[in-house]
Amino acid sequence: MKAKKLLTLALPVMLLAGCTLETYGLTQSEYRQVDKEFKADEMVEHMKKMHYSDEEIERQLRGALANINSEKEESKDEVEIEVSESEVSESNDDNIEGFLSDSYFTDLTDGVIELSPNGKELVGYWGIYSYNRFSLGLDMKKDGSYTIYESRDTKDHKKNYIKGKWTYDSDTKKLNLAIDKYVQDGKEEDKDTLNSSIEYTIQSFKNDVFQMEDVKENILKAKKVK
């Protein structure tokens, strides 16, 4: 179940394995930090029972993450200069102005699906966004293979990734991601613990952005990077 849980955390709606868990705007790495120190899953479950909104849950998780980071900083001998959140926002393409808003996305796509029967337009490197933040990198190749990265840091790409084959059914608008290999922290996980494939419904595709939905009605938006 460990690998299944990690897959779910890594891909809140991209590669669900077994049960569905959201990372509520945190990256996989951030969520794992909170889970390790504060049992994030239990935190989320408790907040849901208290009828917290997704935004409130994210704030609580980020508060826990900030506490963890603060303790780490105190244990260091060297003082590091922290980049303010506003500076990150200005320099980080996670927050490209306008793209992540629902109205802007709708204007770009108009709810139409401009995909060829073979889905060739899906080929490319995509930035996947969840809760208005960069969540994943999805590299879909012409030969039908794909690789998913949880970080844009190329140094991390060799240690944390998922590989497999993708197919698109134009009749049903389904994107299928078959899982062949999952590497976490440089170690390949047992394939028997993974789902064989995950399926998504393409809801719109136009102007190099698209939206898809999983069986749990979770939504992801994607923007082509290259």
TrEMBL record:
Transmembrane segments: none annotated. Residues 1-17 form the signal peptide. Residues 114-212 form the DUF3994 domain. Keywords: Coiled coil, Signal. It comes from Bacillus wiedmannii. Residues 54-85 form a coiled coil. This is DUF5004 domain-containing protein.
